[in-house]
Design brief:
Blueprint lengths: L3 E10 L26 H5 L5 E5 L1 H5 L1 H11 L4 E7 L23 H19 L5 E4 L8 H7 L4 E2 L22 E5 L2 E5 L4 E3 L4 H9 L3 H5 L1 H4 L1 E3 L7 H13 L4 E7 L14 H21 L1 E5 L25
Helix pairs in contact: 9-10
């Protein structure tokens, strides 16, 4: 087993609106995007790599894209695709920005919106995009062959130990990457690293609340560990990395939203003081990783090229998106 911890850090780079329950389908606010510049020390001082999963609104706005591309020029930032289908053309006649669940969309419309996102991303990045994350973690089985067909090598739309309201349950999904076969080819699934504090208890919780999704999802608040800096404290982030590695995990994959860099855009980040604390927590954690592990930073698509990738299992994706 490798003694290296492979670290993938990603952001969902998107418009504001995540925590309001409503997105503007056209000309959404993108005030948060220039704040990505605050992450430059991760690249230049700590020598990490980043993956920016950008949605259509970011690709379509020249100012937002300029802020993204300035960091991408370092060659340490991968541009991936992030589908907010409600703010990706073709738009509905009423112009609604309601974030409907994926399975409620006509298949043809879902395909058209995915293709428009990937084409706009290719136009901006100068090459086809190789990594993807679905908005609201709403990956459904019908998306996987579409992703493979359009050249996506790595998907990162699975969040273990979560059961989303009106959406899929990823509760028992693996925390380490795994391959998924589709008629159009294999895709590597790279879940967010979220693990139970005590292995096995999550299965008992699942049996208790399998039919009550809200109760099932509450495990996330008291029984889970992750390195996600908005969800968990610095001690919990460190514990997540240690326990994941001790249990045989070799890929640490964590994320946050670009809008969480903007004071007031998230209930978790109500003001400038909280925003500054978030950045300090991220930098402190990344320094701690370098001091306590033999690490190799990488981007999302680079996970599929790892020497250990051949040993990742191939698993069937559940038919309805639920684990």
């Amino acid at each position: 087993m490798s003694d290296t911890l492979y670290v993938c850090i990603s952001l969902d780079v998107e418009e504001e609106g995540l925590f309001s329950g409503h997105y503007a389908s056209r000309n959404p606010p993108l005030t948060n995007i220039p704040l990505l510049a605050q992450l430059a020390p991760l690249l230049h001082e700590l020598d990490f790599r980043l993956t920016f999963f950008c949605d259509y609104a970011v690709f379509a706005d020249s100012g937002a894209w300029a802020a993204v591309s300035r960091l991408a020029e370092s060659q340490k930032v991968e541009i991936g695709a992030h589908l907010h289908h409600w703010s990706t053309p073709p738009f509905s006649a009423n112009g609604s920005g309601e974030p409907l669940r994926t399975h409620l969309l006509p298949p043809r419309l879902l395909r058209e919106r995915l293709e428009n996102l990937l084409e706009k991303g290719k136009e901006r990045a100068g090459h086809p995009l190789a990594s993807f994350r679905m908005g609201r973690w709403d990956l459904r089985r019908q998306l996987l062959p579409l992703l493979a067909e359009h050249g996506i090598k790595v998907d990162s739309s699975i969040c273990p130990l979560r059961a989303f309201k009106n959406g899929p349950s990823h509760f028992l999904a693996p925390a380490e990457p795994y391959w998924v076969g589709t008629p159009a080819g294999r895709i590597l699934e790279a879940p967010i690293t979220q693990i139970p504090i005590f292995s096995g208890l999550e299965r008992i919780w699942m049996r208790l609340w399998t039919k009550r999704q809200a109760y099932l999802d509450s495990w996330h608040f008291f029984g889970a560990l992750s390195a996600n800096p908005v969800w968990h404290s610095l001690p919990v982030m460190k514990m997540a990395a240690r326990r994941h590695f001790a249990r045989g995990g070799r890929v640490l994959n964590f994320f946050w939203h670009s809008s969480e860099l903007l004071p007031g855009a998230s209930p978790n980040i109500p003001d400038q003081q909280h925003a500054a604390r978030l950045l300090q927590k991220i930098f402190t954690f990344c320094k701690w990783l370098r001091l306590n592990f033999k690490i190799q930073p990488l981007t999302a698509s680079e996970i599929a090229a790892l020497p250990i990738a051949a040993r990742f299992p191939q698993l069937p994706e559940p038919a309805d998106g639920d684990w």
